[in-house]
Amino acid sequence: MLGSYMHGECIGVCSCIFKGRRKKFLSWFLLGKELRKSVILCVKFNYIITSTVSMEKSLDEKITVQFLKEVSIAKAIGLILFISAAAFLFLIWLLYFKEAAETTAGWVDQLPALNALLNSASTAFIIAGFVAIKKKKYITHMKLMLTAFVTSALFLISYLVYHNFVGHTPFPGEGWIRPVYFTILITHIILSAFVVPLVLTSYYFAFSGKFKTHRKVSRWTFPIWLYVSITGVVIFFVLNAYV
């Protein structure tokens, strides 16, 4: 079809030249030029649409979990909020209301360092996952973010075990470091309350094949999760320097 078009174009050019119809030739040539641009744009647009559809189907097959597709958004969000609220309230009770255990094993003192290590690992995996998605490496992104979730979950378990034995650790620092420390601590605690529901919601939308909604939620999940992970490490080092 394109060959026929180019053949006709050549015939038209020759005809205009021999007949001396310069104005008609110029108009026809400009029209042909615009038509060529339109054809190229249509081909490119069709390629982009086809590639996007193929990518969505490929991701749907490799990433999605069938039973999550069958769970409604309302039920999923409701369950996520319930779990998140219960976990946060339990953490507050453990830190500020539960009395510390009377006896403490020797290995408990090593848990803060482990917590910092796990938080650092989570930070590295979150950043690596962000880089991967920017490069459109979707499967690599999924694996890195799942690993970040595992390290964060291990941190939470270690954190709960430590505070079950030790309880709340007061900060003894004075001077300029005190308002700095509590600013970091308060923002860390507040935002950590949002991390669990945001992360779980992001995973739900990804594994249920709702990728557009997943991207929208992840725009909030990424910076908050990253901030909480980084400040967790900062809090450890500041406490370690003064306690």
What does this structure look like?
This protein has helices at 2-19, 22-63, 66-69, 73-96, 111-134, 138-166, 177-207, 211-242. It is mostly helical and 243 residues long. The longest helix is centred in the N-terminal third of the chain and has 42 residues, at 22-63. The model is unreliable at 1-19 (pLDDT under 50).
Could you provide a short overview of the structure?
The chain is mainly alpha-helical. Helices cover 84% and strands 0% of the residues.
Structural class, by secondary structure, is mainly alpha
Beta fraction: under 5%
Low-pLDDT runs of 5+ residues are 1-19
Distance N terminus to C terminus?
80 Å
What spatial form do the alpha-carbon principal axes imply?
globular
Write the element-wise H/E pattern from the N-terminal end onward. HHHHHHHH
Biggest sheet details: none
Name its key features.
243 residues; mainly alpha
Outline the fold blueprint.
Blueprint: H1 2-19, H2 22-63, H3 66-69, H4 73-96, H5 111-134, H6 138-166, H7 177-207, H8 211-242
Helix pairs in contact: 1-2, 4-7, 5-6, 5-8, 7-8
